[in-house]
Design brief:
The protein has 517 residues and is mainly beta. The protein contains three helices and 35 strands. The chain is elongated and about 80 Å long.
């Protein structure tokens, strides 16, 4: 269902060109640009709306007989030339380099540079790339175009921090300079009875706006069009991006996903399958975090389900949701290549009132780490009807944890499962399963060991018993334990939070347990 291969690592070298005084130049050994044209976001939105009233025209493939053979290995051998990038002269904006078309991103996109309301297209040529190691003939690639772009770190000029490539996907390396989960412009019919649709950003406009990098984009697909504006800034705590989109519908869309996030989860401490990889855990993110319109904080650990599952968390005017990697200890992964402990979380902060709807979490079974199998998005209750439109504003945080997490509430840090009952109990109750959830932070940090902290646990099916809370000796963690005796073969939805008297100490922990898993 998710058609992107995660092993396609984006390979290119940094560089760029900006003449003194901020005036774009185009010498023979630099970028080439087309004629100047007026540009405004208002005109872009009007163009998208007009396009939505007309039949969709799919992009025409270019040199498909060659592109199909540019796989992961070939991509690594095609190098972007340092003198053909945008804004590499410095000081000023971070340079922008461009991606080559390949098997996984085969449709070209138009890229423009924008200055003072004037846009000029960056004209493609095979001389932007060094093909020597690849064995490809540049003459046969004269009319390809670019597949996307990435923002390079202006300090090192060798690493990037933001990339747009493939359909409407984009991602950032976040706080620890390590790519992981991706965001998307929009999701259409994800895990629905009808096939999923992948609209694509077909054109981009790049603008230097002081500390911000301004990115405008035109989205196009069979069911909708859209005009997007992104403002991105990189700082010590990660990358923050403001997003505005105006959407226009060509046809009815049964399941519209706004601010979608895409990630990978194979297994963690909560479920380690038989015949798994030797590494203790493999995932980009280990949970879905929610901040509801009423202010409740929720943590739902991710799972690798036995079948495709879509869970809806109904809400009105949500205040935030995201896919977060809370476990950031290298020892829990033992991976010095993928560095899953450094993968960023992505937090969505809605701006304005989004009304009623639901955050939906889609979990797709997987048996390896090479494909994204987790999707989260906001699904508005109002229908997406042909001829209509919607607009959304939100902020994305690419960093290690949810922004501004309050000191007044503890968070769940780890979830573990095992056999139920009491150690030494004879006979061992084979129909019970134990859940162990560690909490830390908030009021728990100041508390010594005590035995009147209670777990409030409920289950949609089955029976809960033997529930209690202890402080883990020598740590700042508090551990909640309980047994579940399942009923039937359908999954049980579990809910728990910690309480001291009438005071709530923790966020709400949710879990979906499959009795036969």
């Amino acid at each position: 269902m998710i058609a992107l291969d995660r092993r396609l690592l984006l390979a290119a070298l940094p560089a760029g060109l900006l003449a003194p005084g901020g005036v774009l130049a185009a010498p023979a050994s630099g970028i080439r640009v087309g004629p100047s044209k007026d540009f405004s976001f208002t005109e872009l939105a009007a163009r998208a709306q007009k396009s939505a009233s007309q039949p969709y025209q799919a992009p025409q493939p270019r040199a498909s007989h060659i592109i199909k053979d540019i796989d992961f290995d070939a991509v690594q051998k095609i190098k972007f030339r340092a003198d053909h990038a945008l804004w590499a002269g410095g000081p000023g904006p971070d340079p922008v380099s461009f991606f080559h078309l390949n098997r996984f991103s085969a449709d070209p996109v138009a890229i423009h540079v924008l200055e003072n309301g004037k846009a000029r297209e960056i004209l493609y040529g095979p001389d932007y790339f060094d093909y020597n190691a690849s064995g490809l003939d540049p003459k046969s690639l004269a009319d390809l175009g670019f597949s996307g772009f990435r923002m390079m770190d202006g300090r090192t000029r060798s690493t990037d921090w933001l990339a747009f490539q493939g359909a409407s996907y984009f991602r950032s390396s976040g706080e620890d300079a390590q790519y992981g989960a991706s965001a998307r412009g929009i999701a259409i019919n994800t895990a629905a009875p009808t096939p999923e649709e992948f609209p694509r950003f077909s054109e981009f406009w790049l603008e230097n706006d002081g500390p911000l990098t301004g990115i405008y984009a035109l989205l196009d697909g069979p069911s909708l069009t859209g005009a997007y504006k992104f403002d991105a800034v990189k700082n010590a705590s990660g990358v923050i991006m403001n997003v505005h989109c105006d959407l226009f519908f060509r046809s009815d869309i049964p399941r519209l996903g706004v601010a979608p996030l895409t990630s990978m989860y194979w297994y963690g401490e909560n479920e380690r399958p038989k015949n798994a990889d030797w590494r203790p855990e493999i995932h980009d993110n280990d949970g879905l975090a929610l901040l509801t319109g009423k202010g409740e904080r929720i943590w739902r650990p991710l799972i690798d389900p036995p079948r495709v599952m879509t869970n809806s968390f109904a809400d009105t005017n949500p205040r935030g949701f995201g896919l977060i990697q809370r476990d950031r200890d290298f020892a829990d992964y033992q991976d010095d290549g993928a560095f899953y402990n450094k993968r960023p979380g992505i937090w969505v902060e809605p701006k304005g009132d989004w009304g009623p709807g639901a955050v939906q979490l889609v979990e797709i079974p997987t048996d390896d780490e090479t494909h994204d199998n987790i999707v989260a998005y906001w699904r508005p209750d109002r229908p997406a009807r042909a001829g209509g439109g919607m607009s959304f504003d939100y902020r994305l945080y690419w960093q290690n944890s949810e922004p501004a997490y309050p000191q007044s509430i503890a968070k769940a840090l780890a979830t573990r499962l095992g056999r139920g009952g009491i150690p030494g109990q004879n006979p061992w109750p084979r129909d019970k399963h134990k859940f162990v959830v560690d909490f830390t932070g908030g009021p728990l940090m100041q508390m010594r060991q005590r035995y009147d902290v209670k777990p409030v646990v409920t289950a949609s099916r089955g029976r809960i018993d033997n529930a209690y809370v202890i402080k883990v000796v020598g740590t700042d963690r508090w551990r909640a334990l309980f047994d579940l005796q399942p009923e039937g073969n359908e999954p049980a939805d579990l809910r728990m939070f910690l309480k001291l008297g009438d005071t709530t100490l923790s966020e709400t922990w949710l879990y979906q347990y499959f009795p036969q898993s």
